C-alpha cells in the first residue's frame, strides 16, 4: 500500500483485507469446531483450520433459541428454511426465486427463458442452461455439501411420509455432485450419476413415493438414458397404486409429457454444444490477444437442428400426446405403456391427429380427453374457490392445467393453449382463489406463468 495514501484509502484497504479474511475463514471453517479439535496441531490437509474459540458451540449458546413445533408440516418447513440458509436451492414450500435469486427457475439460452419445464416438487424435465462458454454449474465447498447431505438423510429418516424431501435430495445431487468424466459440458448431463444412485437407493424404502419415481426418471433423462426414463414412467403409471398414492399421479403425467415434448430440443442443444466444442479455435492475428470464448448456443440454431431431426421430433411429440390423453382417461382407463417397437415417421412439419395414429390416438379419444380435462379442471377450481380444496387438490389443479394446455397445443395449436392458461390462471389461481385457499402460493402462480411463457416463446421460435 502506498504510504502517501489518504486516510479514506487506508481505511478502505483495511476493510477489504478484513472482508477477504472473513470470506476465507467462512469457506475453510464453515463447520463448528469441537473443543478437542482446537488443541491439535493443524495437519497438511487442514492447514487452514485456525484455532478460533468462537467456533466452539455449547448448549448454553443456543438453548434460549430452541422452541417446540407440534405439527410435521411446520417441522418440514423449518428444515427447508435451514437448507436455504445453508445455501441449498429448494423449490418446496418456498418461493425460491424470490428468497434466493441466484437459483432462479429461469434457465436460458441467450438469456431468454427456454426449454426447462418446472414441476413441483423440484422437478425440472431438463436442467439445461447453455450459455456462451461456461456451463451452469452450482458452486459450493465440499464441507457444506456433505453437511447438507447429512441434513437431507436425517430429514428423510425423520419424515418418511414427506414426498418432497426425497425429491429435493435427488435434485441437490443433480446440482452439486461430481460431474462424470468425459460428459458434455452441459447442464443436462451434469452430475446425473450420483443423483441416479441416490434415487435407486431411496426406491428400496420409498417405492410408493411418486415424486421419487418422477425424480428418478428425470435423472435418467438428464443422463441421456431416454429409454430407461420412459421405462420408469411407464412402470409407475401402470402400477396398481392405492388411492392415497394416486393423488400425486398428475405430476407424473405432466412431467412425462413435458419431458417428451422438449426432448428433441434438449437433444439439439447437446448436439450444437458438441459441434461447437469440436470446432477448431481460430488462430489469433499478430498482436491480437487469443480468445477462448465460443459462439453462443442460439435458440434459432437449436430449433433448426431439432427440426432437421424430424423423426425424433415427431415421435416425442406423439408420445407426449399419448401420455396426456392417458392422463385424461385415468383412472377409469388404466395406463397402457406405448408400444416399444414403434418406428418414428419421416420428417413432419407438424404433429397432427392423423400422424399419431400409430400410438392409438384417435380423433374420438382426443375429443373425449378434451372434455374430461375441462370437467376435471372446473371441478378443482370449484373446490378451490369454495374453500374445500386440500393441498393435493391445488397441486392436481396446477399439474392438470399445464397438461391440458400442452394437450391443446399439440392438438389445436397455440391459441387454444393460451386460452386454457388465461382461463384457469384467472379462476383457479386468481386473487379470489388465492385469498380463499391457504395452499395456493406465489411460487405455484409463478411456475404456471413460466410454463405459459416457455410454451409461447418456443412457438415464436418455431414459426
Structural class: mainly alpha
How far apart the termini lie comes to: 60 Å
Task: Give the total of beta strands.
Answer: 4
Output the strand order for the largest sheet. Answer: 1-2
For the report, how would you describe the main beta sheet? 2 strands, antiparallel
Query: Percent helix among the residues?
Result: 55-70%
The mean pLDDT is 75
How many helical stretches?
Answer: 18
The helix-strand sequence is HHHHEEEEHHHHHHHHHHHHHH
CA radius of gyration is 25 Å
Shape: globular
Low-confidence stretches: 93-138, 179-190, 287-293, 341-356
Strand content: under 5%
Q: Can you put this structure into words, describing what you see?
A:
- The protein contains 18 helices and 4 strands.
- The longest helix is centred in the middle third of the chain and has 30 residues, at 249-278.
- The chain has helices spanning 7-28, 59-62, 72-86, 96-99, 142-158, 163-176, 192-203, 210-222, 226-238, 243-246, 249-278, 299-308, 310-329, 363-385, 391-411, 414-427, 431-436, 442-462; strands at 108-109, 112-113, 118-119, 123-124.
- It has 463 residues and is an all-alpha fold.
- Helix 3 (72-86) runs antiparallel to helix 5 (142-158).
- Helix content is 57%, strand content 2%.
- The strands form 2 sheets. A two-stranded antiparallel ribbon has the order 1-2.
Amino acid at each position: 500500500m502506498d504510504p502517501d495514501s489518504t486516510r479514506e484509502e487506508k481505511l478502505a484497504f483495511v476493510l477489504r483485507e478484513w472482508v477477504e479474511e472473513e470470506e476465507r475463514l467462512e469457506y475453510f471453517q464453515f463447520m463448528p469446531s469441537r473443543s478437542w479439535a482446537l488443541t491439535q496441531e493443524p495437519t497438511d490437509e487442514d492447514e487452514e483450520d485456525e484455532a478460533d474459540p468462537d467456533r466452539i458451540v455449547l448448549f448454553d449458546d443456543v438453548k434460549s433459541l430452541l422452541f417446540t413445533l407440534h405439527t410435521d408440516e411446520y417441522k418440514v418447513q423449518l428444515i427447508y428454511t435451514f437448507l436455504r440458509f445453508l445455501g441449498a436451492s429448494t423449490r418446496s414450500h418456498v418461493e425460491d426465486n424470490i428468497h434466493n435469486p441466484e437459483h432462479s427457475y429461469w434457465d436460458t439460452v441467450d438469456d431468454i427463458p427456454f426449454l426447462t419445464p418446472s414441476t413441483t416438487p423440484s422437478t425440472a424435465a431438463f436442467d439445461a442452461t447453455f450459455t456462451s462458454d461456461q456451463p451452469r454449474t452450482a458452486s459450493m465447498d465440499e464441507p457444506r455439501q456433505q453437511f447438507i447431505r447429512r441434513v437431507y438423510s436425517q430429514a428423510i429418516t425423520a419424515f418418511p411420509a414427506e414426498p418432497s424431501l426425497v425429491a429435493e435430495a435427488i435434485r441437490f445431487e443433480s446440482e452439486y455432485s461430481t460431474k462424470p468424466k468425459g460428459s458434455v459440458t452441459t447442464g443436462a448431463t451434469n452430475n446425473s450419476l450420483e443423483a441416479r444412485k441416490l434415487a435407486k437407493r431411496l426406491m428400496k424404502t420409498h417405492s410408493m413415493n411418486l415424486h421419487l419415481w418422477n425424480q428418478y426418471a428425470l435423472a435418467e433423462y438428464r443422463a441421456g438414458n431416454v429409454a430407461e426414463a420412459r421405462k420408469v414412467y411407464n412402470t409407475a403409471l401402470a402400477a396398481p397404486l392405492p388411492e392415497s398414492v394416486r393423488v400425486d399421479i398428475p405430476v407424473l403425467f405432466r412431467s412425462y409429457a413435458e419431458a417428451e415434448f422438449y426432448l428433441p430440443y434438449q437433444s439439439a442443444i447437446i448436439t450444437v454444444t458438441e459441434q461447437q466444442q469440436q470446432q477448431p479455435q481460430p488462430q489469433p492475428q499478430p498482436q491480437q490477444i487469443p480468445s477462448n470464448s465460443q459462439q453462443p448456443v442460439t435458440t434459432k440454431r437449436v430449433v433448426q437442428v431439432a427440426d432437421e431431426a424430424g423423426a425424433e421430433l415427431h415421435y416425442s411429440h406423439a408420445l407426449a400426446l399419448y401420455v396426456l390423453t392417458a392422463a385424461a382417461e385415468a383412472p377409469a382407463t388404466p395406463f397402457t405403456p406405448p408400444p416399444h417397437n414403434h418406428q418414428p415417421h419421416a420428417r413432419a412439419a407438424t404433429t397432427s391427429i392423423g400422424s399419431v395414429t400409430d400410438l392409438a390416438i384417435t380423433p374420438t379419444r382426443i375429443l373425449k380427453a378434451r372434455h374430461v380435462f375441462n370437467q376435471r379442471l372446473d371441478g378443482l377450481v370449484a373446490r378451490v374457490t369454495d374453500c374445500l380444496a386440500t393441498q393435493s387438490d391445488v397441486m392436481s389443479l396446477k399439474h392438470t392445467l399445464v397438461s391440458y394446455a400442452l394437450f391443446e397445443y399439440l392438438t389445436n395449436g397455440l391459441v387454444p393453449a393460451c386460452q386454457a392458461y388465461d382461463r384457469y390462471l384467472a379462476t383457479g389461481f386468481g386473487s379470489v382463489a388465492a385469498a380463499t385457499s391457504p395452499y395456493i402460493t406465489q411460487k405455484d402462480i409463478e411456475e404456471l406463468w413460466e410454463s405459459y411463457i416457455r410454451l409461447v416463446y418456443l412457438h415464436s421460435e418455431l414459426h
